[in-house]
Specification:
The chain folds into 5 domains: 158-282; 300-394, Calcium-transporting ATPase, cytoplasmic transduction domain A, CATH 2.70.150; 406-475 and 723-792, no CATH class; 476-502 and 613-722, 3-Layer(aba) Sandwich (Rossmann fold), CATH 3.40.50.1000; 508-608, Calcium-transporting ATPase, cytoplasmic domain N, CATH 3.40.1110.10. The chain has 27 helices and 28 strands.
């Protein structure tokens, strides 16, 4: 007969509730089980037996406060039409089955569109249909299945958790110092001179050890219990066995009147374990802070100044009521108010739905909305930061899987390490029971403590986290650490040309064609200035230098990728693009050109391409890769590029679909492909490649489908970035060698009885700290090889 609740794993009382041949501790657990079964989510229980969280006693009106608009708006990140996006803190998230259940909420309630869980932050990013489900009802549903959302101040909660941890550390430290003081006669060998005093101090040691075992060491027992309940091992299992063995043996010695046992070692053991955990927490937080706040995207926005001129500023410099201008395909960095008459907004960056929404003057537009229209004016309503955009970028739907095989490998290695450790401890205990039974506990505990797979487990996350930080500081911004492993396996690199190897800022441009009136030039500039395509930007820059400015009346703006842009004015329609799009004849196919049509007049802008500074040296340094060129332009620049690319690897007049298919063909041959493009016509290719890097200029634009973003001014260092990424394998090997060497030497001393549990407890966090230091210093040393980036 079952002794624990099938849902939450708590011990059953005599009044257990039986349902479906299973037993539950309360009606709430039975209700949740029924809910999961009815929605075909029974796999939840196969991931971890008793994994559910016990639902509290529900009050149907518990979350009604969320329907007060002023309160509700404080928690909602996005609300457009019927779609609401919110990030909730769910402190009950504790295992893989929690993630499985939460990410399948849509099966429980179809009004929930999507849910993505951040295990480390215990957050769930949820999109739902507000016409079918209220926010208060969503909170109640989460509460009902055991994941009650916490709407309190996260900073205060984190501070409270830190205080509790420090209390645990302080109690363990006090007990350690006190027990060592009371055990001083033992250290001097004079314990037998006053047996009454010895027994009294032993009882004192036992008394102060009680809060240590019940409070300071509680987290280790909880973690080990959950691991064993789910039938797997983690590092806390052998540690907990060591804690119990040391404490029970010492308690027996004290109670039987034979001295203080190893109670000083026990208290010191817990104390040093907590110090090691404190260090790891601080280090993880520093890496998280680096990721969220200093791995900046090279993003900026055009802001209107007080003198009615324009300036490009970093989004952190935006303030409420600032006026900003956005071009087609640019993503709005903050919640704003539309000042132009109308605009079409694509929220696929937030919701995954690509349908555009028409907004009118005075409407609110949320951060993450992509403009699908002419150049448009907005007023800033709320300040934003890059960490918010980082989260949106990481949540883009349809992204390639970022599973880290190195992490999986090390997790498996750690598992087998723990199995081996337990076997070594058991064999050593058996041998010492025949040699010296009094040393069995001391030797066994020392073995369980000194052998530390956490040094190995920490190697990958700290190494990849540090490498990602180095790359970010240099100007290459990765979506997640798994990209590093994919980057290390690249065999072929595919480059776009226009806007990637070449820049509109350094291209020469000449116009030939029908003569245009001043008004027509103004219309042409207005249309070109609404696009972020490199050719359009070059045309706009030239016309602005010639004294032309924007005019009113642009409507029905349309941009067709790979073809061109067009817009209607009161007097005529204006087009910029290829020959077919502009309905003109192309006589010179070897020109890099953009055609125009203004009413019945036509012409063309001829571009003389120049490579970005340093790109030629970069291409030469990539000779150990198979490099390819895919360009939408004519073969005009073939002579310029043939010394860097094999003739068979250069392809011109490529459509976005051609680029996508070319990369697929390479992958079908077993190649691992890195695609570097400007993020516009190359979006499909960037998404298809094993690693897609979007080149970003100084305006606010980047490709959500990409795996990484590179500051355009740092493209010449691509070979250096790849070298830094590949150096991570050397760092990992160094950490692995240290970890294995430490464990072999430590186990040798422990098995031979030359290592006390206290010394082992000190060495264990020292080993972790050493691995972190090795990883950090070796990784950060690579940053010196990259030139510092220019922050916008």
């Amino acid at each position: 007969m079952a002794t624990t609740c099938f849902h939450c794993g708590d011990n059953l009382r005599t009044s257990a509730i039986k349902y479906d041949e299973k037993e539950f501790c309360c009606t709430g657990c039975k209700t949740v089980y029924t809910l999961l079964k009815e929605n075909h989510l029974g796999e939840f229980y196969t991931l971890e037996k008793g994994a559910g969280s016990k639902p509290g006693t529900l009050n149907e009106g518990k979350y009604d406060f969320l329907e007060v608009e002023a309160i509700r708006n404080r928690f909602i990140d996005f609300h457009e039409g019927s779609t609401v996006h919110i990030v909730l803190f769910l402190p009950e998230i504790h295992c893989a089955s929690c993630i499985y259940l939460l990410e399948n909420l849509s099966k429980i309630n179809s009004a929930i569109l999507n849910c993505q869980v951040s295990f480390s932050k215990r957050e769930a990013s949820i999109s739902f249909d507000a016409t079918q489900l209220k926010l208060s009802e969503l909170a109640l549903l989460l509460d009902r299945i055991g994941y009650a959302p916490n709407f309190g101040n996260r900073q205060e909660q984190s501070h409270r958790a830190d205080k509790i941890f420090l209390y645990k550390l302080g109690i363990a430290g006090f007990a350690f110092g006190s027990i060592m003081l009371w055990s001083f006669p033992e250290y001097l060998g004079i314990e037998n001179d006053n047996p009454e005093f010895r027994n009294f101090t032993s009882l004192l040691s036992f008394g102060v050890s009680i809060p240590v075992i019940l409070f300071s060491a509680r987290d280790y027992f909880t973690s080990a219990f959950k691991a064993l309940r789910s039938r797997h091992l983690n590092l806390d299992v052998p540690i907990t066995i060591g804690i119990l063995a040391l404490y029970l043996q010492s308690s027996y010695t004290i109670i039987s009147g034979n001295g203080p046992g190893y109670m000083d070692s026990f208290a010191g053991f817990i104390f040093f374990l907590l110090i090691g955990k404190w260090f790891q927490r601080k280090t993880y937080r520093s890496l998280s802070f680096e990721r969220d706040h200093t791995s900046y995207f090279p993003v900026a926005v055009t802001r209107k100044t007080t003198s009615n001129t324009e300036e490009i500023v970093a989004i952190e410099e935006l303030h409420e009521d600032d006026t900003i201008y956005m071009r087609n395909e640019e993503i709005l960095p903050c919640d704003s108010l539309l000042l132009s008459d109308e605009a079409h907004i694509d929220y696929s960056f937030v919701t995954g739905e690509s349908a555009t929404i028409k907004k009118y003057k005075g409407d609110q537009v949320f951060a993450g909305g992509k403009l699908r229209d002419k150049r448009t004016e907005f007023k800033v309503l709320k300040k934003s930061d890059r960490s918010h955009l980082t989260r949106l970028w990481n949540e883009v739907k349809g992204q390639k899987e970022g599973e880290s095989t190195e992490f999986e490998y090390q997790n498996k290695l750690s598992f087998y390490f723990l199995i081996g450790l337990l076997l070594i401890a058991a064999v050593s205990a058996l041998i010492w029971s025949m040699i010296d039974p009094g040393k069995v506990v001391s030797v066994t505990v020392a073995i369980l403590i000194v052998a530390c797979p956490c040094a190995l487990a920490l190697s990958a996350p700290f190494t990849f986290g540090n490498i990602m930080r180095v790359l970010g500081r240099g100007g290459l911004y990765l979506k997640h650490t798994g990209i590093i492993e994919k980057l290390n396996t690249v065999t072929d690199i595919v480059f776009d040309k226009t806007g990637t190897l070449t820049s509109n800022e350094i291209r020469k441009i000449e116009y030939t064609g029908d003569e245009l009136s001043s008004a027509e030039w103004h219309m042409l500039f207005t249309l070109a200035n609404s696009s972020t395509h490199p050719n359009s930007k070059s045309i706009a820059d030239k016309l602005q230098k010639d004294g032309f400015y924007e005019c009113e009346g642009l409507s029905q703006y349309l941009e067709l990728k790979g073809n061109g842009i067009q817009g209607s004015f009161d007097t005529c329609t204006v087009k910029i693009g290829n020959a077919d799009f502009c309905n003109v004849a192309s006589l010179q196919e070897m020109e890099s050109v953009s055609f125009i049509r203004v009413g019945d007049r036509s012409g063309k802008f001829v571009f003389s391409s120049e490579l970005r500074p340093g790109v030629s040296e970069m291409l030469e340094s990539l000779s150990h890769f198979n490099v390819h060129l895919l360009s939408g332009d004519s073969p005009k620049d073939e002579a310029l590029l043939e010394k860097y690319f094999q003739k068979d690897n250069m392809h011109f007049a490529q459509s976005p679909q051609n680029k996508h298919d070319y990369i697929k063909a390479l992958q079908d041959q077993g190649r691992s492909v890195l695609m570097v493009g400007d993020g516009l016509n190359d979006a499909g290719a960037l998404g298809k490649a094993n690693v897609g890097i979007a080149v970003s200029e100084d305006v606010f634009r980047f490709a959500p489908s990409s795996d990484a973003i590179i500051d355009a001014s740092k493209l010449s260092q691509l070979d250096g970035f790849i070298g830094v990424s590949r150096f991570s394998t050397i760092v990992l090997r160094s950490c692995l060698i240290f970890s294995l060497s430490y464990n072999v030497i430590g186990l040798s001393f422990a098995c031979s009885g030359q290592l006390t549990p206290l010394v082992a407890a000190i060495l264990m966090p020292v080993s972790s700290i050493t691995v972190v230091l090795i990883s950090t210093f070796m990784s950060l040393s690579q940053g010196k090889k990259l030139k510092p980036k220019n922050m916008i």
